[in-house]
Batch of 2 targets.
Target 1
Amino acid sequence: MARLLITGGAGFIGSHTCLVLLNAGHDLIVLDNYSNSSPKALERVIELASLSLEKATLRLEVVQGDVRDEGILERLFLEGSQAGRPIEAVIHFAGLKAVAESFLKPTSYWSVNVCGSQALLSKMEAYGCKTIVFSSSATLYGAAKSSPIPETAPIRPVNPYGATKAAVEMMLADLAGCSGNDAPFQTSQNGWRIARLRYFNPVGAHPSGRIGEDPSGHPNNLFPILSQLAIKRRSSFKVFGSDWPTPDGTGVRDYIHVMDVAEGHTAALDALLTSGPQLITLNLGSGKGYSVLEVLKAFEKASGVTVNYELVDRRQGDVAITVADPQFAYRRLGWKPKLKLSDMCRDVWTWQSANPLGFHNEAA
Ligand code: WQD
């Protein structure tokens, strides 16, 4: 098993992936600045992994800090190599990830997502750590012409968030010596082993309800908005656009359970650790699209709560349909999502109803 650096490991996808990685036997160092996460998530991960305090100290080291901080990065890599427990691979989640917000704060998104990735990759290179799984996004496809979307579809981001993910993907291709080539599998000329995972819409929570999505401040995404509405933390739900070219006029997305996304990371990491230098690019999606109104109905069924909504104008940066062609991930990793929309709605409701204030819910 490997010793891994997990940037952003206290976040929504990061925390669920840390749990799967610990259960797979890996030892982790988590670097997180808690700008959109809580250290409590990692306490719960330790609980779910049934780690004793002694084991947790050994197997899950937690460092608060910013991925752009070269001093912290230097300390983590240096201490690892001096202690004879070098960082063997990195899973890089740390970043800002809300489409709507990225229009309001483009320079913050470029600083955290791109400069942060550059600082991390430079330090990895300096210490000869050349294995990385990168948290990319289907948002970089923009308004794709084809649906479902294969990994070879043109990269045409229509918002700053997607543009930053495309920029980091290009940086990774340059490192691998694969510049300008969009093939989903390429051997690396420079010894790097890189997986670029393009998430579609990760949602849901661990079935225990002990960890889940807990966005700081006003949530931007559909599922946390629905779940907060159901526990009366919000009073209204706006459907952004009812005139899209879709069956019921509302936006269609490829929702994938966060536990399936976490398993996808472990499968990609295992593929890199057990084979030679390469650059692989994978869609993490189900291949099935659901409209906003279909999600709303499924959530009402899971929660027993009626969701009143208002049809309003489209949201800036949105596209009509984003659905994955997930075949390559299955062929390359033998991985495909197992959980359905009803599981996603059930698990997000279990999480939110048990933790009305997320990880700030002292009573829980
Ligand atoms: C989903 C659908 C909205 C809120 C997300 C993340 C991004 C990336 C891709 C990982 C759309 C509609 C939403 C609301 C609504 N993930 N909606 N009312 O925009 O597809 O992007 O997944 O990289 O990080 O932002 O997800 O959940 O915001 O929207 O009608 O109040 O729900 O228009 O059709 P999106 P979302």
Note: Residues 106-126 form the longest helix (21 residues).
Target 2
Amino acid sequence: MIIDPWGNQKYEYEKLFENFGIEKFSDELWKDFPNPPFFFRRNIVFGHRDFERIKEAIKKKEKWAILTGLMPSGKMHFGHKIVIDQVIYYQSLGADINIAVADIEAYATRGYSLKEAEKIAIEEYILNYIALGLKPCRIYFQSKNEDVKDLAYILAKKANLSQVNAIYGFQGSTNMSHVFAPFIQIGDILHVQLEKYGSLRPTLVPVGVDQDPHIRFCRDIADAHRLYSIVPQNGKVGIFVKVGENVKELLDKAEEAVAGVGKILERKDDYKAIYAEVDNIYKLDFELAKIERNYNEYAFILPSSTYHRFISGLDGNKMSSSRPQYALFLTDEPQEIKKKIWTAKTGGRVTAEEQRKYGGKPEECMIYELFTYGIVESDKELLEIKNKCKKGEMLCGECKKYAYQLIKEFLENLKEKRESARDEIKEYLS
Ligand code: TRP
Ligand code: SF4
């Protein structure tokens, strides 16, 4: 089983924990956050890697960064909105926000020219991001950032063709720009930790779960460039020097770093190892990475990630701009919205009479799913809708009318904000 970032598969989310080692995004992770947003409360963000590191940075008011990306192909729909909802929330918590426009990827994998990709990025995505409430931050185009492209090329040295094929299932006929696209994405993710872009700091990549192969790959590549490896074992940690040069010096410095966060148990020069007891492994990792920077400018803290569930299309399959009749776009006119909502798959019964008697099935209903993805903000109201549906007190016609009303108002408001966003766009594009 592979996850194909360019495919259109439906995911069995439960299997991803076992098969790929994605961690569950438990309530513990966000419970102390201010105003927890709907995507946490409703488990729409369901998985992560190393989110604890971010949580700690937030708690201790340390610097941390967000890096995520948008693929400028097709129109922005409600499924795309969920990433930016998260970015806006993290911005309110003090994250340094960086957004990559994946124009190289759109060129390599979707056949858009860079010019077309630019237009789509601005008209469809960036204007909507601002309209949705994103405050000034850094949005850049892959094709225009030399540091990202250089980093992609340089880091690619520690990956080989078999590895890439095993992760992505590339074929002999896959074009080489496409093969290189994951490296550009790695360049995106890690460049924010270059000196010029804010240096070493925890970096969170909020994405849909289809992007996990890139995250895994990026973490592997970042790890391959580290000089130390840190191996936790039975409450202790082993710190190993992975390289052949400067071993004694690196061990000396690691000893100093450990002194700040715990205590040394043993040093074994012939094993190139130090064994220690530390309470905070993230702090240790950070201190070691800082040491490494004096020897290697490509030492990075492994990026953290979160994964959200994809919103379904109105027919129950994945929402996608390639099937526009089943997607709700942020630029849809009220008439289109009405039509789409009217034909949406619901959890309703065949006849009104049956529905009054047996109730509907909100868990199978695309309208209800839209409500959960933020159209209805209040949990209390959401629960009321669910209960009324299940008891047959509300029929699908009425429910759809309400959904239409909410979405129409939301989109009309957004449209207005998009108009004024045009003047602000300069504050985002670097
Ligand atoms: N590959 C992403 C997509 O298809 C876009 C992207 C490019 C991205 N660079 C990124 C996402 C870096 C997260 C981080 O949507
Ligand atoms: Fe869905 Fe509403 Fe119908 Fe229930 S009443 S099945 S929530 S449309």
Note: The chain has a mean pLDDT of 96.
